[in-house]
Amino acid sequence: MVEVLFASTVTLTAPLLLAALGGLTSERSGVMNIGLEGKLLVAAWATGFVGAASQNPLLGLLAGICLAVAMSLLHLLLTQTFRIDHIVSGMGINALSIGGTSFASKGLGDRSQSVAGVFFPVWMYWILAAAAVLALALALDRTRGGLRLLAVGHDPDKSRQSGVDVGAVRLRALLATGLLCGLGGALIVTNATSFTDGMTGGRGYIALAALILGGWRPLPTLVACSVFGFVMALQLQLQGSELAGAAVPSQLWGALPYLVTLVALVGFLGKSQPPAGLGRP
Amino acid sequence: MKGLGWKEAALVIGAAALVWLMLTSIGVVPSEAIAGLVRGSVGGPAAWRQTLREMTPLLIAGLAVAVALRAGLFNIGADGQLLVGAAAAAVVALAVPGPVGVVLACAAAAAAGGLWAFPAGWIKVARGGHEVISTIMLNNIAVFLTLWLVRGPIKDPSVQTWTTPSLPTGTGIPSLVEAGVFRLNWALPLAILAAVAFGVWLQRTVGGFELRAVGANLTAAKVAGVDVDRIRIRAMVASGALAGLAGAVLVLAFEKRFYSNFSPGYGFDALGVALLAGNSAWGLLPSAFLFAALSAGTTSVQILGVPKGLSTVLLGLIIIVFAVLRYREACRDG
Description:
The structure holds two protein chains of two kinds. In chain A, 73% of the residues lie in helices and 1% in strands. Chain A has eleven helices and two strands, in the order ααααααααααββα. In chain A, a hairpin with a 2-residue loop joins β1 (242-243) and β2. In chain A, α1 (2-28) packs antiparallel against α8, α1 (2-28) crosses α9 (203-213) and α2 packs across α8. Chain B has a two-stranded antiparallel sheet. Chain B folds into two domains: 1-18 and 309-334; 27-306, ABC transporter involved in vitamin B12 uptake, BtuC. Chain B has helices at 6-25, 30-42, 45-70, 78-95, 98-127, 131-151, 187-204, 206-216, 218-223, 228-255, 266-277, 284-300, 309-332, and strands spanning 175-179, 182-185.
């Protein structure tokens, strides 16, 4: 029981963490990113579709990452070159992704069935997620690149004046966002073994909430993701169980992760400080 | 092409190319799909009936999103508010038949929708939590809540499917025009009136001015002595109440019952309606019409083998392209 709960917590935390870290690199560079959900979804679809079509897990994963990176770069183009509102761009990209993957999975036929040799083992993603959180925790305020990222996100104008190429820093940040979300989406479809419409189920937004609750810092974000992952795992375990002798409707358990996210927003937000330059050109 | 740079032109062409590529990739001739889209939305009385029917909830929900947007808040939760509103309307109208029931059902839907939006407004103002996240969470909770209701407490016990009983005849919003297959419900002119009233209120009253001030520059409004917190919470609750009303109209004018998976995503289309309309309340009318035509059109081209996801893709592209063009326009006007 406890082992199952623990394994299931890790399974559900890893994609959240990858997405949240993707959000972290973007938002720390000053680019607000509501579009994590869409990037997870396109990566999940492409990984399943290309993986099954080619019977090659590497090609599948690469396709997922490429599509997520493309969406991330579209966000960069829209917010930096065309200067549109970051939230509007994110919502547009989410709509594009939800509609596009639904269109493609129906129009091109569902080939992402569970077949051996289509996906990489999930532990590979767990290791990558752990490596990513460690790398970010160590690099963010100790390396040249990390400090530049923080500087650009804190005050883009001053960074520009002191000779930092804001555009280049943001390009790298958004490439990382695409890569991390690509891995997260690939893991989601690997866990589920086949693609279904809207299968990310709002996890991109929960990851965003975890990022905010973690104060835009890697290790606290890991903690927040683990809490949400644990609640999701608990929800699966508690399905069909009773509370104080009375049957609990399955929908209540289903709603639990979202309720907890909402309550967390109310209760723990007080001291969380967003990057000062978030949303600024 | 004054003021339209090559970058904007490239974006528009890229968007069109994407749609063309998507259609071709699944073996559909794009010109046939577009002709089918037009036929299915404005080609004949049955198509018009469907487009105007879709326009009704989209206009009201679009108005809902616009109210919050004018105060600088993104209400992504219109879908959830619409769901609880529709469920509340169905429950009340089933309990109280006749015109009185219709009025009470609308009131209950507005109350339910407003109540569902309140936490998002409060979390934003009191705790600084972003309304996009809280409204998405409230959407998911609303889906589970209404699913539980319609599978249990308010389910019609005489049928297998997850639905409430149908409203008795005489309980509902009646048709204004019935000619052959064409129908126009009273709800649409009322919704248009509401959008016009909002436009006038926004331009001509102190409340409307304060709402715009809060949306345009929060700090400036605060310094000028506007109670920004109260206005933002009120805007969110009013937005939720309107979205709830959109749900009531769907139940009372068209569906006559509440069932599982009630909203195919009206709340998200409504966001597109409000963003496309931009700063003007009048703009909501053509914007809601366009999205309604798209929705009716894409439903009809499903026969050609075009998946429904196309309409969501078009929603995304329209949001993006118009945001770009509007920014460009704003720069040109200084």
